[in-house]
Amino acid sequence: MEYFIELFLGGLTRGSIYALIALGYTMVYGIIQLINFAHGEIYMIGAFVAYVVCGVLTIYGFHGVSILIIAGILAVVYSCAYGYTLEKVAYRPLRGAPRLSPLISAIGMSIFLQNYVLLAQTPDFLPFPALIPEFDFMEPVAHIIGSAELVILVTTLVTMILLTLLIKYTKIGKAMRATQQDMSMARLVGVNVDRVISMTFIIGSALAAIGGVLVASYIGQVNFYIGFIAGVKAFTAAVLGGIGSIPGAVLGGLALGLTESFAAGYISSDYEDAFAFALLVLILTLRPSGILGRATKQKV
Amino acid sequence: MKNLKQSLAVALWFIFLTFPLMVVKVNTSDSLVEWRWWNILWVGLGTFALSFVWRHALARKEARQMAAQAGQEELIGPGPFERVMANQTLRNQFMFGLLIFALIFPWTFDTYQTTIMISALIYVILGLGLNITVGLAGLLDLGYVAFFAVGAYAYALLNHHFGLGFWTVLPVGGLLSCLFGVILGFPILRLRGDYLAIVTLGFGMIIKVVLENWSEFSFGPSGIANIDKPGLFGLAMDIDAATTYIYYIAIALVIFTVFVTTRLRNSRIGRAWIALREDEIACVAMGIDMARTKLSAYALGAYWAGMVGVLFAAKTTFINPASFTFMESAIILSIVVLGGMGSILGVILGAFILILMPEYLRAFSEYRMLAFGAAMVLMMIFRPQGIITNIRQKYEYKGLKEETEHG
Q1: Structural domain for B22, as ranges
Q2: Which residues of A fall within a CB distance of 8 Å from B284?
Q3: CB pairs A-B closer than 8 Å
Q4: What ipTM was estimated for this complex?
Q5: pLDDT digit string (tens) for B209-240?
Q6: Which of chain B's residues have a Cβ under 8 Å away from the Cβ of A112?
Q7: β-strand partners of B27
Q8: Ranges of residues in chain A whose predicted pLDDT is under 50
Q9: Alpha-carbon Rg of chain A, whole angstroms?
Q10: Is the Cβ pair B138, A100 closer than 8 Å?
Q11: Within-domain flag for B194
Q12: Same domain membership, residue B171 and residue B268
């Protein structure tokens, strides 16, 4: 039973990270129907910036939680900047082009960003300092759930509540929902669609960066390639939940994390990735629009 | 003045963006921070200059689009190269010259050059195969390398366990890939473009994970060594002769592939693929069987990857799962995209450019993937039809033309 709870909490942690990244995919897809393939790279850049900032701060004598906060903030700022630039350079000129074009452009951008980090920094795995401290009050349950896992779960929960509030009650949130429903109509009633799209990329990137910093300090290493796998998994999660739906992305992320955790714990950890994709193929075959997605009727 | 200001802003923005990654480098083991200040200058100057080019190119593209909308000129018209190719005699001469060059190549260059040429030819076939799925049928396949792996492992395993030769396995590898294409095709028939891309990507990953972990079957990450080279009636060959021989096999396979894919493109099923790519709903409404058309595009696209996978295993005599990563799929995809989706000559040219250029520009080979990625983005924005435009065959009513000419 204890093993089961351990796997469950591990899956939940992993799933909440997937959910954080999946939100970026789903929000962008909901608005411009584009798989932002480079989203995983934004997550990786967030983690990498945090790594660099941590390194510099450690050498200049900072320590503890202050590093975590400064590195986290800078990672979010930079990820947002990259996400914003990415949209401007690679996707905006392709607005209105055939659907395959922006997708290929996104794949190109993903390859470009990976290799940019590889060349600017290093191809090696770098050790990432464990920024999240061990809490004393976690001592009695430490064999089931670590402090880092608790921080990840709480941070994700808080982020998601904030996101929900943002989308429900703020002006930009309303504009985002309007654009998602009908872009040309939103434009007609005075929504600045270009700004909404930029904002969507910025918010998605911020979520990815939070995920990136949390994962990097949980796993303890960064590399230019981490974004690719995480991105693919998160996209799988978004599709699982029904792409375009925000609660769907969260649900999909948790479902994927739990599946992986249980499959690795009870069957075999070698085939972890294969299980994730098998689940995806299964869901898409049975329900092409995902768990919470609405089946859209195509009209001519 | 306004331009200057804009470019300055762009340069400053990119300096800010690249600062933590390009300038700072942390060496944690020695607790040292390396500040590479010079990079600021390069980034600044580079983006400053590029932003001018970028704006100019975007403005030109827009002007062209406006003109096309006004009906003044065709948006995707034939370039000078396409006009030459449209001329029958010139084209035949060109093809003949190319063939002669291909045939004497191994005798004029050394074995090393021939080996490079073989790998370029392998990518030509891979590109042509993926061109069927992506270029003609418009189904984005991001796990194409999986079919390549199926072919390569088919030969390696059949050769290892049963001692089957190259020529026996060549069709078997292709057909096995076909089968995998159909298996992959079934669950995703109902999916739309984007979902399809992610499932094919997943398929590519599953194959790699299985090859890496199922050691009893595939010998795991250590791979399979000592695969037989293709035989020629039991003749003993040294390395040079064997390379030349494989080169000729590759040339023959390329010619075979070009012939079949050209015929396929102009056939009933090829036109069905193009119709499916242009508009799925209209295509189904016209009575084209969508399931059959999609499955055949997957199966026929996969066939070439399987076939050339056998050749790849025979050429390298050693394979392991590391040869079949997503990056390979991405390279093949960029060949198709850069060459021109749907255009056979474009794909061939694309493969040569993308594979040979990094080989001969060794100094820049580490920038290869960076350039690929950038080229994919730029190509999509400024020249989505690729290097060589695929010109759709048009049927002209000859009778009327003759009448007007004579009368």
Answers
A1: 2-69
A2: none
A3: 171
A4: 0.84
A5: 888 888 777 787 888 887 777 776 666 677 77
A6: 370, 373-374, 377
A7: B32
A8: none
A9: 19
A10: yes
A11: yes
A12: yes
